[in-house]
């Protein structure tokens, strides 16, 4: 499974591509940051993010886009920009028929470090180890995007089983 | 000046086109709502909103898109969807080179009713009167979109003068 992780933001949108499967070694296929100037107009920043995400989708052809689930209670000052950047990323993927998966920050931290309350340094260290990199990816947004992709690869089997069970339950309910 | 007003939302995105100039009678060119099913996946809802906004841009060729400025402190439960829907609308306009203007809810209310704290019914009544309609546009999101467009038409001259004054001041600062 090849996953494009996106850590959304208007100023820095982290992107990272990881390939692998649960229980198998992971491989990093690419990592980077889509940046837009803080003094540009909001509309043109969104257009630049769209172009950046399109480029990563063209280049890496991921099967899934994993995005951070944004909560309105976190970081009230930046949350609007985060929601807007994530909307653009989800739009780009959905337009191509690529499924979008959302993971909360604590799910991501728990997946790669074992603790939902791990700090940025710990996440960066584990991403470096799991992907056998020479150094933690910089900036932190890029490392977070890789962590999101890893989280999705590891959680997807469990999520799929849950969805199948729910679908089965719904079918049973209808035929009962 | 022809303005497409957008009252952003995932479930109901109000859209309204108004033509006119400050101090001249206003004309409604169209009003409606882009709806997406609440049980659909977020990505496909954003794709549907994009298609809806594109349709309104194709149909009415507005010179400006006026969108409600979203605040994270208002309505915490729905604010994320509002931010995401508004991002898609701004993206669609900016991609075509159409300028995007943001107005706060209280600016819009003050523009059409004289009070920044007017309620929905008062806004609907004034929109009906200003556009010489037979009845208030339904749902309220559609009326709000028209109010946004009216607000922009009336505020734009003042905003332009302010921007020109700021630009002049900046130029003077550089040459001083």
Automatic annotation (TrEMBL), chains A, B:
Mg(2+) 1 binds at residues 7, 141. One of its GO terms (molecular function) is magnesium ion binding. One of its GO terms (cellular component) is cytoplasm. Belongs to the RuvC family. Keywords: Cytoplasm, DNA damage, DNA recombination, DNA repair, DNA-binding, Endonuclease, Hydrolase, Magnesium, Metal-binding, Nuclease. Homodimer which binds Holliday junction (HJ) DNA. The HJ becomes 2-fold symmetrical on binding to RuvC with unstacked arms; it has a different conformation from HJ DNA in complex with RuvA. In the full resolvosome a probable DNA-RuvA(4)-RuvB(12)-RuvC(2) complex forms which resolves the HJ. Its cofactor is Mg(2+). It is an enzyme of class 3 (hydrolase). It comes from Streptomyces spectabilis. The active site is at 7, 68, 141. GO terms for biological process: DNA recombination; DNA repair. The RuvA-RuvB-RuvC complex processes Holliday junction (HJ) DNA during genetic recombination and DNA repair. Endonuclease that resolves HJ intermediates. Cleaves cruciform DNA by making single-stranded nicks across the HJ at symmetrical positions within the homologous arms, yielding a 5'-phosphate and a 3'-hydroxyl group; requires a central core of homology in the junction. The consensus cleavage sequence is 5'-(A/T)TT(C/G)-3'. Cleavage occurs on the 3'-side of the TT dinucleotide at the point of strand exchange. Mg(2+) 2 binds at residue 68. Binds 2 Mg(2+) ion per subunit. It catalyses: Endonucleolytic cleavage at a junction such as a reciprocal single-stranded crossover between two homologous DNA duplexes (Holliday junction). This is Crossover junction endodeoxyribonuclease RuvC. Its EC number is 3.1.21.10. InterPro entries: RNaseH-like_sf (IPR012337), RNaseH_sf (IPR036397), X-over_junc_endoDNase_Mg_BS (IPR020563), X-over_junc_endoDNase_RuvC (IPR002176). It holds the Pfam family RuvC. It is found in: Cytoplasm.
């Amino acid at each position: 499974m090849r996953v494009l992780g996106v850590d959304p933001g208007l100023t820095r949108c982290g992107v990272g591509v990881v390939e692998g499967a649960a229980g198998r070694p992971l491989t990093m296929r690419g990592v980077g940051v889509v940046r837009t100037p803080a003094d540009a107009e909001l509309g043109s920043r969104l257009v630049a993010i769209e172009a950046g995400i399109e480029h990563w989708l063209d280049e890496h052809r991921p099967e899934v886009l994993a995005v951070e689930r944004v909560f309105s209670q976190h970081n009230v000052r930046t949350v609007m920009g985060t929601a807007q950047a994530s909307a653009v990323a989800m739009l780009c993927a959905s337009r191509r028929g690529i499924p979008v998966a959302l993971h909360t920050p604590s799910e991501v931290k728990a997946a790669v470090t074992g603790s939902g309350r791990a700090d940025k340094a710990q996440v960066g260290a584990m991403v470096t180890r799991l992907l056998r990199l020479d150094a933690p990816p910089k900036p932190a947004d890029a490392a977070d995007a890789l962590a999101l992709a890893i989280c999705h690869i590891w959680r997807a089997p469990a999520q799929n089983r849950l969805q199948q069970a729910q679908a089965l339950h719904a079918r049973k309910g209808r035929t009962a």
